[in-house]
Design brief:
Elements: H1 2-109
């Protein structure tokens, strides 16, 4: 009987040790899981911020393209106006030269 009591006592100590060790392991595992969950949340937040940044960049690109297109249209209008004015100036110069040549011709004919 004494041997059986001793064995049961030793088994009790052994199970107590295992139970405490298991409890520490469980606490460590729970702590690790909490840290993993926090990391996952941070990653999700980071992904959301990246998505928002991409949307902002896309919007800025669209606005920039609109501005560039508007500037091109305005530039084309200015160039066309300058071209028309240049043609008028050239036509006026040619008319003046024709008048001068006509005067010279008429003086030569006299």
């Amino acid at each position: 009987m004494e041997v059986l009591g001793l064995i049961l006592g030793l088994l009790g100590l052994l199970f107590t040790y295992i139970w405490k060790a298991n409890g520490k392991t469980q606490k460590q595992m729970m702590s690790a899981l909490e840290r993993i969950e926090e990391g996952v949340e941070r990653i999700k937040e980071g992904v959301e911020r990246i998505g928002e940044g991409q949307k902002e960049i896309a919007q800025m690109c669209r606005e920039g393209q609109k501005e560039i297109a508007q500037m091109c249209r305005e530039g084309q209008k200015e160039i066309a106006q300058m071209y028309r004015e240049g043609q008028k100036e050239i036509a006026q110069m040619l008319l003046n030269q024709t008048k001068i040549l006509a005067r010279i011709d008429s003086k030569i004919a006299d």
